[in-house]
Specification:
single chain, 544 residues, alpha+beta, 12 helices, 15 strands, elongated
Length: 544
């Protein structure tokens, strides 16, 4: 048959065609060879011919690697791919490829339990040079505090040399680039550099870029590391007992324009002076020397006393302000006197709000017309309810009884008041929460106290175990929740001007922050009926 080799042809004499392949030519054993020397024995480790096969494979891969049509192109591609990998500070893996590593792996065979690394100049390196070992030991907290961030800081800011960064270029000429290296994810097939840039350029306001002192103050370090670079006494308001704002010092020492400093530094608040303790009187219960049980209950609070808890309820025509009454946001209840509504009993708490929900509801009545299946609705009215939750935490013994007096008084507001004639009366309460509710009158429908399991208790015992008559066995953490129904001092209605909304369901502060009540509508002028023309019957009459 045409195209088919004659079955009588000697297949051993067929040519391989053009090219260098196959790289190894092995003659086929004769048909009558009773004892072939290759590939005999069981298929197991150490079988006959294994060493010869491995050497043959090594020879074959060597010839292939030197073949310009295949091997050299493959090696070039492998090196380009290796360069695109991320460069680490460890000595392995290397971002280079040599075919000798592949040949070494072929020489030992896959079933010998020996595995060489694919990239690198040598097929194997010591474990201490590998990435995992370096990561766990050189950069761990057990190596004197060295980590990649501090190593970079030393190289970048201090100009120190670090052997861990010998292969990564620390860019000392470009302040906008922290480091760079050849290849990596930022390159194209290994061509080009990868640059790790600053997220923001904070040195714009420094006239001399060689001046490193100010830059040392903006690196996040531990206290000891920072103290080695710049004395904390040079930073306003800092120290072991208080925390200041280093931005204030940077602002004072910089010669840049105010606009540049404002854009880079942002708000410049001196926290050593404006903080919750000095401004709002929270006290420092965790500061040394303050012990809960050693504070006596008297009228003199210590530096560990929260003044808002310590100051008791009071009667007045307006709320007090200052330490012991203010917090980050205003938060107090004012209970009106039923006999003299101008006078109120004020109860201040810390604004540890856990819940604050304001619910507005419109009420509609449904009805149906005969022959229609769907409902129709008639507007019936409006209602509003506010749920408030907050925590009362007692820091010191001096706050124990004053804080519980406040809670006891609020609970009593749920009970009736009796007029001189013996009639029951409830209380109108004004609630203030920041500028959202500002002296909004209403009624407290409920008041609930909860005591979480993780709350500690004052056990009213002295250090010697005897009973402390100046204390009581009470929880020091109380979770309060209440439901408040506002009674608006304006007519609830739809705002006619969204840009100047009135009425104010949200207070917007005591001065309404620029919002004013809408002017009262002009009185309606009656329109006289139109005159009836002559010979025209009045409406409703039927002419014959």
């Amino acid at each position: 048959m045409p195209g088919i080799i004659d079955l009588q042809t000697n297949l051993r004499d067929l040519s391989y065609g053009s090219g260098k392949q196959p790289y190894i030519q092995t003659p086929i054993p004769a048909y009558d060879d009773p004892n072939p020397t290759n590939h005999i024995g069981r298929d197991a480790l150490g079988r006959t011919g294994l060493v010869n096969d491995l050497l043959t494979d090594v020879e074959r891969i060597g010839k292939w690697a030197l073949d310009g049509t295949g091997g050299l192109i493959f090696v070039t591609k492998q090196n380009a791919l290796s360069l695109t990998g991320v460069k680490t500070v460890a000595n392995a893996p290397k971002r280079a490829y040599l075919p000798t590593n592949t040949a070494a792996q072929i020489a030992v065979g896959a079933n010998q339990g020996i595995h060489f690394i694919q990239p690198g100049l040598v097929p194997d390196i010591d474990d201490t040079n590998k990435y995992e070992y370096v990561q766990r030991n050189e950069f761990s907290g057990n190596s004197g505090g060295l980590n990649r961030l501090t190593a970079l800081k030393k190289a970048k800011l201090n100009g120190e040399t670090n052997p861990l960064f010998t292969e990564i270029q620390i860019n000392n000429t470009n302040e906008g680039v922290l480091l760079q290296y050849l290849g990596g994810p930022g390159s194209a097939l290994g061509i080009g550099n990868t640059k790790i840039r600053r997220t923001s350029y904070t040195e714009e306001w420094v006239n001399n870029l060689a001046q490193k002192e100010l830059k040392k103050q903006i690196v996040a370090l531990t206290y000891n590391q920072l103290d080695n670079q710049v004395s904390l006494t040079n930073l306003t308001g800092t120290g072991l007992a208080s925390i200041g704002n280093f931005l204030v010092t940077l602002n004072d020492e910089s010669t840049a324009s105010p606009a540049v400093k404002q854009r880079i530094l942002g708000r410049l608040t001196d926290y050593s002076q404006f903080n919750r303790d000095k401004t709002f009187g929270t006290g420092q219960p965790g500061n040394g020397g303050v012990n809960f049980n050693r504070q006596t209950y008297d009228d003199t609070p210590t530096h560990g006393t929260d003044l808002v808890n310590f100051f008791s309820i009071y009667k007045s025509t307006e709320a007090k302000t200052g330490q012991g009454y203010d917090d980050i946001i205003k938060f107090h209840f004012a209970v009106m006197d039923n006999d003299n509504p101008e006078e109120k009993t004020y109860v201040h708490f810390r604004a540890y709000l856990t819940q604050f929900n304001d619910s507005h509801q419109s009420q509609w009545n449904s009805f149906k017309y005969m022959g229609r299946g769907e409902n129709f609705y008639r507007y019936e009215g409006y209602d509003r309810s506010i749920s408030i939750g907050f925590k009362v935490y007692i820091h010191s013994k001096a706050e124990l009884f004053p804080a519980y007096k406040k809670l006891n008084y609020l609970a009593s507001v749920m009970a009736p008041d009796y007029s001189p004639g013996g009639f029951m009366r409830g209380y109108i309460v004004e609630v203030t929460i920041g500028d959202y509710l500002n002296n909004v009158p209403g009624i407290l429908e409920s008041m609930e106290f909860q005591f979480p399991e993780d709350s500690t208790w004052e056990i009213a015992r002295k250090d010697d175990g005897n009973i402390d008559n100046t204390a009581a066995e009470l929880p020091r953490l109380i979770e309060v929740s209440c439901n408040f129904k506002p009674i608006h001092n304006f007519l609830p209605s739809t705002a006619t001007n969204p840009d100047n909304p009135y009425p104010k369901f949200i207070s917007l502060g005591a001065d309404a922050k620029g919002y004013a009540p809408a002017p009262a509508p002009e009185p309606l002028t009656p329109v006289p009926p139109a005159p009836i023309p002559n010979n025209t019957p009045p409406p409703g009459l039927i002419t014959p």
